[in-house]
């Protein structure tokens, strides 16, 4: 394939062309030439668009593919199509399938099914068998078989002894533990954030304390494991503990303090957490039922501050597809989750609170790659072409989804920030 990307502003801090408007010639999966007014042969496909921007390919660190086991909600083909439509070239998928990705056979199935897709699929393997929090998986075997990280996904590691031993197993092989911070005994039967709104709506609350206790506990256990290394400044690329989908101001503060002390820790936030607070649930829209739940306005403001100051490393979709039978129910009976792969960028741009574009793109590119130990990519001649093309000011209406499930609160809305396509593995994948 030969592709000429015409007059695109490059957004890539690692590139010597960062901030410049250039043409980019892609040939056989490599960036062959970058310049101005590059010649165009008749057999070269040309991509042009108003206000065209290009960055290295976006990475989503938290996606539930539902395959194997729940293919009626999503399968690997549909999730990859949705990811490409959202501008992603790489996704990391959670192990919460049926069977759980807790053995080489299931990991191998996922990797085989992901071959030939428009995005690269990276597998997060389970820490415990069946993600039940009781017995360890063979993490070292899974690590050597290609697992990029370890997590029980939507289930937090409740047992502190298991948590400590997991860190001890992973540290020598430069592995990564991703934990969803939630004290399960404090969230039983919870439906939304615990506060004035939950009282007014008569719904069982999920207290912010349930998340914050686990963040504080995990950080203290991390310090225990590090021992004499506590306080040492460690490269961000070597994060040993990653907090998935933090949602409260106190969590941001705790992680900020840990980073200042040199702890090898990182975290992400789901794009929808940057938009809604708990008042959005007044109409009992089950598409807004998520875990962690939408918190207070102060928490949302703190999340934006955490993005701006570097405390929060990445923005994720937390893509959790649910079929109509799981969502078209009374609020307390509906499943948690939002489909978000196709709207991450547009949602953050539309509701942006003064986060510079370059910084936003960095939360989708450089930092996720570092945390997941993926090979670095940059826009430079001779480098593999893994690119996302977008117009940060373009508007579009989210009227259709490539996901099998439609549990998105943004369907039908007009958003700002339009993905034009991706270039990955020698293919151009336009969104239209």
Provide structural commentary.
The radius of gyration is 21 Å and the shape is globular. The protein has twelve helices and 18 strands. The protein is α/β, with parallel strands linked by helices and 432 residues long. It has helices at residues 76-85, 104-113, 139-144, 160-170, 196-201, 208-226, 249-260, 297-309, 324-327, 344-350, 357-362, 366-372, and strands spanning 2-10, 21-27, 30-35, 45-47, 53-56, 58-63, 88-93, 120-125, 149-150, 177-179, 192-193, 205-206, 241-243, 265-270, 314-316, 387-397, 414-424, 427-430. Helix 6 runs parallel beside helix 7 and helix 7 (249-260) packs parallel to helix 8 (297-309). The longest helix is centred in the middle third of the chain and has 19 residues, at 208-226. It has two domains: 2-53 and 382-403 and 413-430, Urease, subunit C, domain 1 (Roll); 57-372, Metal-dependent hydrolases (TIM Barrel, Alpha-Beta Barrel).
Please give a quick description of this structure.
With 432 residues, this protein is an alpha/beta fold. 26% of the residues lie in helices and 22% in strands.
Q: Tell me the strand percentage band.
A: 15-25%
Structural class: alpha/beta
Q: Count of DSSP E strands? A: 18
CATH class descriptor name of the largest domain: Alpha Beta
The CATH H-level superfamily of the largest domain is: Metal-dependent hydrolases
Instruction: Tell the overall outline.
Output: globular
Tally of DSSP helical segments:
12
Helix content: 25-40%
Uncertain runs are none
- What is the count of structural domains? 2
């Amino acid at each position: 394939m030969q592709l000429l990307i015409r007059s695109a502003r490059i957004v890539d801090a690692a590139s010597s062309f960062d901030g410049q408007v250039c043409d980019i010639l892609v040939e056989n999966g490599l960036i062959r030439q970058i310049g101005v007014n590059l010649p165009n042969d008749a057999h070269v496909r040309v991509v042009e668009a108003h206000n065209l921007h290009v960055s290295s390919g976006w990475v989503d660190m938290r996606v539930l593919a539902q395959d194997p086991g729940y293919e009626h909600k999503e399968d690997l083909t549909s999730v990859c199509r949705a990811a490409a439509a959202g501008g992603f070239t790489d996704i990391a998928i959670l192990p919460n399938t049926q069977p759980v990705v807790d053995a080489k056979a299931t990991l191998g199935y996922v990797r085989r099914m992901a071959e030939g897709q428009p995005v690269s699929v990276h597998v997060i393997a389970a820490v415990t068998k069946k993600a039940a929090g009781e017995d360890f998986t063979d993490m070292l075997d899974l690590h050597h078989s290609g697992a990029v990280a370890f997590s029980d996904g939507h289930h937090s590691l409740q047992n502190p002894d298991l948590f400590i031993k997991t860190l001890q197993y992973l540290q020598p092989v430069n592995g990564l533990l991703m934990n969803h911070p939630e004290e399960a005994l404090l969230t039983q039967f919870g439906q939304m954030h615990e506060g004035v709104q939950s009282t007014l709506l008569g719904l069982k609350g999920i207290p912010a304390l349930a998340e914050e206790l686990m963040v504080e506990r995990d950080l203290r256990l991390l310090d225990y494991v590090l021992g004499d290394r506590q306080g040492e400044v460690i490269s961000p690329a070597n994060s040993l503990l990653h907090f998935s989908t933090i949602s409260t101001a106190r969590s941001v503060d705790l992680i900020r303090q840990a980073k200042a002390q040199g702890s090898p820790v990182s975290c992400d936030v789901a794009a929808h957490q940057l938009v809604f607070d708990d008042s959005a649930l007044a109409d009992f829209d089950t598409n807004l039922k998520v875990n962690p739940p939408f918190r207070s306005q102060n928490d949302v403001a703190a999340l934006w501050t955490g993005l701006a100051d570097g405390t929060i490393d990445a923005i994720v979709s937390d893509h959790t597809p649910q079929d109509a039978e799981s969502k078209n129910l009374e609020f307390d009976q509906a499943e948690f989750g939002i489909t978000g792969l196709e709207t991450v960028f547009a949602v953050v741009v539309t509701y942006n609170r003064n986060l510079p574009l370059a910084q936003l793109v960095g939360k989708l590119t450089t930092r996720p790659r570092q945390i997941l130990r993926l090979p670095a990519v940059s826009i430079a001649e001779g480098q593999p072409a893994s690119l996302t093309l977008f117009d940060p000011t373009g508007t579009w209406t989210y009227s259709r989804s490539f996901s099998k499930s439609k549990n998105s609160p943004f369907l039908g809305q007009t958003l700002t920030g339009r993905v034009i396509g991706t270039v990955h593995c020698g293919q151009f994948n336009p969104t239209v």
